[in-house]
């Protein structure tokens, strides 16, 4: 009877605002039951993706720990002396390790179908994953420039000083963080209502989930931001890496006969670093840049 009287009262009102207010009052009286959707553990595609991420997590964490441990023993044997290449590799491994740490959260989110860790962990997850991808590409670019300087301008010692390398890495980290600030600040755990139905008088059943997503960013701003990231954090670094390694390999080829046997490892290191850069930019490291750009391009924005 109460529900019928309410509907009569609702439709006797003339203005839309009054109807909306009465609708809110009616919903306030309702008993709301929230339910979760079934998990995705039976979805084969989700399981394959989750298994791939976990494999990458295990390989990435163990590989980076092994690299850092090896460098630690090398530094101890050399009485703490580290050249620029090792400094860049240390920072790159630490950044890469941070990206790997974020992978289990992605796996759990995929299997359950919703985010269960709250807004704070959501922001931390976004920082580890996205900041790491941006900074990694910038560090690899700096490594290519350092390799070029060490071979083609070896007389300019100040360009390969440890202080300059640390300053460059600090500046790159600051640039990556400032660039991503609008992107990372908007991340939070947001409740989404997938389905709701009035199952009985004054009883509402809703299927709700939380997702770690961006809020309060228009699609136009998000598109501009994505294009900016793709140009200045992928295409431009890739162009620099290509430019400096082409010049480096030309110089190595021109003077290969003049190199002494003690200089051969320098060429090998340059070729190894070139291979790492090619794998990173072309094939994509773990999830890579290409899936990353597709992911944030299709990410829901509210």
Index terms:
Rhopdopsin 7-helix transmembrane proteins; mainly alpha; 3 strands; elongated; 302 residues
What report would you give on this structure?
- There is one protein chain.
- By secondary structure, the chain is mainly α.
- It has two domains: 1-30, no CATH class; 36-297, Rhodopsin 7-helix transmembrane proteins (Rhopdopsin 7-helix transmembrane proteins).
- The protein contains ten helices and three strands.
- It has helices at residues 2-12, 16-29, 44-77, 84-101, 103-112, 118-152, 162-185, 219-254, 264-284, 289-297, and strands at residues 31-35, 187-200, 203-214.
- A three-stranded mixed sheet has the order 1-3-2.
- β2 and β3 form a beta hairpin.
- The model is unreliable at 1-6 and 285-302 (pLDDT under 50).
Q: Largest sheet at a glance?
A: 3 strands, mixed
Number of strands: 3
Order of secondary-structure elements: HHEHHHHHEEHHH
Beta fraction of the residues?
Answer: 5-15%
Shape by Cα distribution: elongated
Determine the mean pLDDT.
76
Radius of gyration: 27 Å
CATH-derived topology of the largest domain: Rhopdopsin 7-helix transmembrane proteins
Strand arrangement across the biggest beta sheet: 1-3-2
Q: Tell me the number of structural domains.
A: 2
The number of distinct helices, counting runs of at least 4 residues, comes to 10
Give the low-pLDDT segments: 1-6, 285-302
CATH architecture of the largest domain: Up-down Bundle
Quick one: CATH class of the largest domain? Mainly Alpha
CATH superfamily placement of the largest domain: Rhodopsin 7-helix transmembrane proteins
End-to-end Cα distance, whole Å, is 39 Å
Helix amount, in percent? over 70%
Pfam families: 7tm_1
Domain G-protein coupled receptors family 1 profile: 63-302
Membrane topology: Multi-pass membrane protein
Protein name: G-protein coupled receptors family 1 profile domain-containing protein
